[in-house]
Amino acid sequence: MRFDVADPLLWWPRGRGPQNLYDCRVRLYRHGELMDAVVFTHGIRTIRLERTELTDDAGGGAFLFQVNGTPLFVLGTNWAPLDAYHSRDRARVDRAMELAVEIGCNMIRCWGGNVYESDRFYDLCDRTGILVWQDFAMACGIYPQDEAFQEVIRREAVAVVRRLRSHACLALWAGDNECDASHLWGASGVDPNTNVLTRRVLPEVLRNEDPGRPYLPSSPYIGPEAMEHGTRWLVEDHLWGPRDYYKGEYYTSALCKFASEIGYHGCPEPATLREFLSEDKVWPYADNEEWRLHATSPVPGVDLYDYRVELMANQVRVLFGRIPEGLEEFAYASQASQAEAMKFFIEMFRSQKWRRTGIIWWNLLDGWPQFSDAVVDYYFRRKRAFRAIQRAQSPLLMAFREPEQGMQELVLCSDIPRAIQLEFSVRDMDTGEVLTVGEASVDADSVATVHRLPYRSDRRRLLLIEWSGGGLTGWSHYLSGQPPFDLRWYRAHMDELDRRA
To answer: Which CATH number, 3.10.180.10, 2.30.30.30, 2.60.40.10, 3.30.70.980, labels domain 396-500?
Structure first.
């Protein structure tokens, strides 16, 4: 049945407008007798994904969500299982969603290695205005192609789509997580475009059950053009790479318009480690089988992920030039390196709006006690990256672009649907010197360059950026110069900034 709604109150994502939801009741009659009825909420909105297969060196192509005809810059997080025992997921979902709202996300990607979330999760996303990118539950592998397995996937997809399709928050169906990429790992020689599950079975289900919603065959999607020209030019990609210095060439030279995975390790608080490690295994980290076990290495010496503990330590070594000798200092340094990395990734993408169109970082919350990229651990203790991301995802942000030819641009990034005028200053926290002060403006939902400063790579300093205007105030910091930085110097300045937060 089709019917018109005069002057509908639209549902909008967070930060773009209200989350108007209609209370709906549908009754089914046969010969005047009531046979069935259902009551639900429904949000009226349109959603479209402008998408090409590839970008280019100049930033061409498209991967852009539009809601109610309005472009949306996506700031989101990947959503992994809330608990290793899925019977406990429901008890954690409200608190997890509060974190997603507080940190400033407008999208959650339900990752293909996940379980399908509870109705409560999608109801909360409807109410809070957080869009959902929903992977079908396949990840990181080449799945069977026979008719029996196709039928299993078809039945599963029909059930999932029928359960979720009425939610206003649901923005995208994706066929899987990294299964296209899996076809290219290890030189299997199989073209991912021959995957009948994501190229035929799932599209047929969606055509019948939810034809108006965007569909992406895989994340990242490696279509025929990418097979011909190369994956460097994928318009949407997962940026993991060597996991070295977060300002390394791998990250800064990435061409994708949209990153749907990117992350950096951060050690949990010492109090958390003492909850899940044996007393004699809390420290040191090196050659520690319990650290390896809780760093996603269930078969020590055999598993693919034995390297992750040393990777975390190396990220500390790169930024601060040394590995701290004690647990408390190590945990702080690791969390600091994660916070600086996540802050940089988000600011890099936002400062290039609309050349870039979104970033979904990995990830919000651990589902079991571990060493990971999550910014909140299993016990809901927040790492330093939580506040760094929260500031980087604020609707109004001032940040430095990376230097070019000895100069650095200070930019004003706005996700606010109106023009903004403000006053700003930049101060050297070592000397107290005010490097610049002025007024700036930015158009609605855009980015503007407001000042340029000279840059020296051999001069290490921490700059404080402050702004106020349009009823908004904010601050951020910039770690200027090349690593390694002195950890005690860094911590003294960050303690000062923590007190103002």
So the answer is: 2.60.40.10
